[in-house]
C-alpha cells in the first residue's frame, strides 16, 4: 500500500508539474520535482504555492521550494508561503534598497521565512505592519537599518534573559515571554530587517577561543558587503564581541565564525553541530576546566541543538580582518605599542612555507595578557598577528600547535617604539 501511495504521489507530481513550470527557469525543474516527492502528502499544498504565485514571484517561490528543508516541505501550507512571498516582494517594489538587490541576495537573505530551527510562525505580515512605519521616510540604507535596530526592543518588548523557555525561539514565542537569548534576539532582528526588504542573516560561533561560550548575532548586506549588527546596536561592525571574534582560530571549525545560508552550501551552519561533533565526543570530566566551564555556559545560554539541514558559510577571516583593522584605528596610550608576531619553523624566514600557524599566548609573569593566532604558510607575507602590549616590558610568549605537537616558550622585551615586530623561530 505504501509503495502504491508513493507511486501515485510521484505520478501526480510528474503530470501536474509539466504545465506548472512554464514561468519557472529550467534550472529549478529537477529540484522542484525532488522537493515535491519529499513533500509526500503535503505535495498539493507546496504545488499550490508555486501555481498560485504571481508570475513575477514564481522564481522566488521556486527558489524557496527547491531548497526547503524536508520538515517544511511536509508541513507548510500554501497560504503561509504565498503570504510570505507577497510581503517580501511588496518590499522589493517599495524600497529602493530592496529594488536594487541582485536576485541571489533577495532570494537567500530577504525572501526566506526562517533562519535556523525556530518554529515556523507567519511573522512576515505582522512585522511589515510593525516596522514599515519606521522606514517610510528613509532613502539611505544605513538610516533604514538603524531606524529598525534602535527601537526594536521597545516595539517587540523582548529583552535578553536566559530564563526563556527555548533557545531558538521564534518572534511570536519570544514576544509571548518578553525574553530571549542572543539567538532569539537575532532571529527577531533579522526578521525585522527582512520585513522591510533589508537583506539579513544570522551569524555566530560554536565556541570562542577563550572557551567562554558561544554567541549569535545578525548581519546586514550594505555597500555590497556583509556587516554585523546586534539587537542592542552600537554601530555596523562594532560590538563588544569583535575582539573575541577577531581571535577566532581559522584552522579549527569549533572556533570558526559562521553565517547562515538558506540555499545549501558545502557545510552546515555551526548551530551546535560543530559543538556536538568536536566537543560532545569528549568526556565532559576530561575537558580542561576552562573548556568545561565554557561548554556548560554554552548549553545554558545558547543553542547547541539545531538540526543538520541548516547551512552556513565560513566568514572567520572577515572577522579577523575587521579586528586587526580596529586595532590600527585605536589610539594607543603613551605606554602602549602594537606588537606583531609571526612564527617560523626554521631560519629561512623569507620563505612562505616556513611560517607556522600557532596559538600565541602572552604572559607577564604568571598573568595571561592576551592571545591570538599567527598567520599560516598560505597567508599573505605581510600578515602578522597584532597584539597591544606595554612598552619596555618583559613578557613570556607561549607558542603551541597541537596538530604538529608544538609547545614552545620565548622571552621577549618590548622597546619604546609605537610598533615592534617579533619573528620567532622554533
Gap from first CA to last CA? 69 Å
> Fraction of residues in helices?
25-40%
Low-confidence stretches: 286-291, 297-306
Record field, number of beta strands: 14
Biggest sheet strand order reads 5-4-3-6-7
Class from helix and strand fractions: alpha+beta
Number of helices: 17
> How does the overall form come out from the CA principal axes?
elongated
Strand % is 15-25%
Calculate the mean pLDDT score and round it.
87
CATH A-level architecture of the largest domain:
Roll
Assembly context of the chains: single chain
CATH fold-level label of the largest domain = C8orf32 fold
Name of the CATH class of the largest domain: Alpha Beta
Any idea what the radius of gyration is? 25 Å
Count up the domains.
Answer: 3
- Biggest pleated-sheet summary: 5 strands, antiparallel
Fold and architecture overview:
With 426 residues, the chain is α+β, with helices and mostly antiparallel strands. The chain folds into 3 domains: 1-76, no CATH class; 102-319, C8orf32 fold (Roll), CATH 3.10.620; 332-425, Immunoglobulin-like, CATH 2.60.40.10. Helix content is 37%, strand content 19%. The chain contains 17 helices and 14 strands. It has helices at residues 2-17, 29-39, 43-52, 58-66, 70-73, 78-94, 96-99, 103-109, 124-131, 141-149, 152-156, 171-177, 182-195, 242-245, 273-278, 289-301, 316-329; strands spanning 159-160, 179-180, 200-205, 215-222, 225-229, 258-261, 311-314, 336-344, 359-364, 367-373, 385-390, 394-401, 406-413, 419-425. Strands 5-4-3-6-7 form a 5-stranded antiparallel β-sheet. It has a 4-stranded antiparallel β-sheet with strand order 10-9-12-13, with no helix packed on it. A 3-stranded mixed β-sheet has the order 11-8-14, covered by helices on one side. Helix 3 packs antiparallel against helix 4 (58-66). The longest helix is centred in the first third of the chain and has 17 residues, at 78-94. It is elongated. It starts with a helix and ends with a strand. Mean pLDDT is 87; it is low at 286-291 and 297-306.
